[in-house]
Amino acid sequence: MSGGVDSAVAAARIAEAGHDVTGVHLALSANPQSYRTGARGCCTIEDSRDARRAADVIGIPFYIWDMAERFHRDVVEDFVGEYAAGRTPNPCLRCNEKIKFEAVLDRALALGFDAVATGHHARLEDGVLRRSVDAAKDQSYVLGVLTREQLAHAIFPLGGSTKAEVRAEAARRGLAVADKPDSHDICFIADGDTRGFLAERLGAAEGPIVDALSGEVVGSHQGAYGFTVGQRKGLRLDRPAADGRPRYVLSIEPVSNTVRVGPRSALEVTAIECVRPVWNGPVAEPREPLACTVQLRAHGEVYSCRAHVSGDTLRVELDRPATGVAAGQAAVLYDGDTVLGSATIASAGVPTAA
């Protein structure tokens, strides 16, 4: 129970359905005072109090589990390390994979529970993960990394409801979090300043910003980790492009500490190389090229594609170009609204200097 409206209603629904339910809030910071106050993120001190009050209203036992050390290692350190390596991680996806459905699930099963239920907006039917009926709130993408074994011990009670219906139900049940705003920020970055957070841990490292088409140095930076592929704002370039059009981050090279920029058209890719595929859908790993769709970022566009599997790698060929495809993000494959599997994006054919 995160302290938000979704997990509160999820707990209420499964308790009402007759399950033996225990509410658990995760303490994810070794120093809770370092977490923000208010409703900008999740996992704040206020959230733990809201979760406890919701459990009291529902009438279920409530505990706080200390996962701070595991969270720091598997989510925070992973986040910093991925940026240092020139990739763009999704910490919420990693938290689902390593904390909620690994660390928490392992402890729950050891204690005799059958499953972990969360307030994610996704459907789980006969062990198969599907999109929520509320397309705007669908979270199947950030759950697409889970294995079949993890999904076999998961419950997502909200997948058949819209967010408006969930809030209305919370109000009817007398849950004080009915109107609580959704969280959007990274929970462990107290002020929302991702670049500052990374700079504090990785230090300043001046390097060049290079025009990928001409090879000219057009600016400098204090750390390549402060940029993401597709970024347009905040580049602080010394000179404009010859055609006067905006330039975008095309690639990040951590070894040379170089950021390459260029026109938006240079961001377009039609082939994406991925690693560590996970097949959690209704069919096993495909032996032939698979015609399906792919989502390349949370709440991002969906592209028709063909997926080619070769051992521990996956090549995704898009029917139309995508832009801003960043290494480190997940490529989640779908058949309609059904998740077939996922893999981690390794590269997307971003051009280098001419």
UniProtKB/TrEMBL annotation:
UniProt protein name: tRNA-specific 2-thiouridylase MnmA
Compartmental location: Cytoplasm
Keyword annotations of the record: ATP-binding, Cytoplasm, Disulfide bond, Nucleotide-binding, RNA-binding, Transferase, tRNA processing, tRNA-binding
Protein family (similarity comment): Belongs to the MnmA/TRMU family.
Region feature (Interaction with tRNA): 137-139
GO terms (BP aspect): tRNA wobble position uridine thiolation
Organism field: Thermocatellispora tengchongensis
Site residues (Interaction with tRNA), renumbered to this chain: 120, 329
Boundaries of every tRNA-specific 2-thiouridylase MnmA-like C-terminal domain copy: 274-345
Keyword Transcription appears in the UniProt entry: no
Keyword RNA-binding found: yes
Annotated residues for binding of ATP: 26, 119
EC primary class: transferase
InterPro entries named among the record's database cross-references: MnmA-like, MnmA-like_C, MnmA-like_central, MnmA-like_central_sf, Rossmann-like_a/b/a_fold
Chemical reaction(s) catalysed: S-sulfanyl-L-cysteinyl-[protein] + uridine(34) in tRNA + AH2 + ATP = 2-thiouridine(34) in tRNA + L-cysteinyl-[protein] + A + AMP + diphosphate + H(+)
Domain tRNA-specific 2-thiouridylase MnmA-like central: 196-262
Annotated coiled-coil segments of the chain: none
Pfam families for this protein: tRNA_Me_trans (PF03054), tRNA_Me_trans_C (PF20258), tRNA_Me_trans_M (PF20259)
Principal place of residence: cytoplasm
Task performed by this protein: Catalyzes the 2-thiolation of uridine at the wobble position (U34) of tRNA, leading to the formation of s(2)U34.
EC number: 2.8.1.13
GO molecular-function term, one example from the UniProt record: tRNA-uridine 2-sulfurtransferase activity
Record's GO cellular component terms: cytoplasm
Positions annotated as active site in the UniProt record: 95 (nucleophile), 187 (cysteine persulfide intermediate)
